[in-house]
Amino acid sequence: MNADIASMIGKRLGLSALTLLIVSFAVFVATNLLPGDTATILLGQAATPEAVAGLRQAMHLDDPAVFRFLRWLAGAVTGDFGTSYANNMPIATLIAGRFVNTMELAGLTAVIAVPLALTLGITAAVLRGTLYDRIVAVLTIGVISVPEFVVASTAVLLFAVYLKWLPAISFVNEVHSLTDLLRMYAMPVVTLTFVVSAQIIRMTRAAVIETLSMPYVEMALLKGASRSRIVLRHALPNSLGPIVNALALSLSYLIGGVIIIETIFNYPGIAKLMVDAVATRDLPLIQTCALIFCLGYLILITIADIIAILSNPRLR
Amino acid sequence: MTQSAPTKSAGLFGYRLSPVGSIAFLVILFWAVIAIFGPQIAPYPVGKIVDMDYFGPMSAKFWLGSDYLGRDMLSRIILGARYTLGIALAGVLIASTTGVVLGMAAAVVGGWFDTLLSRLMDALISIPSKLFGLVVVAAVGSSLPALILTLAVIYVPGAYRFARALAVNVNTMDFITVARIRGENTLYLAISEILPNIIRPVLADFGLRFVFIVLLLSGLSFLGLGVQPPLADWGALVHENIQGLSLGAAAVIAPSLAIASLTISVNLLIDDLPRKIRDRSA
Question: Which of A153, B45, B164, B186 has a Cα at 20 to 30 A from A101?
Answer without folding.
Answer: A153
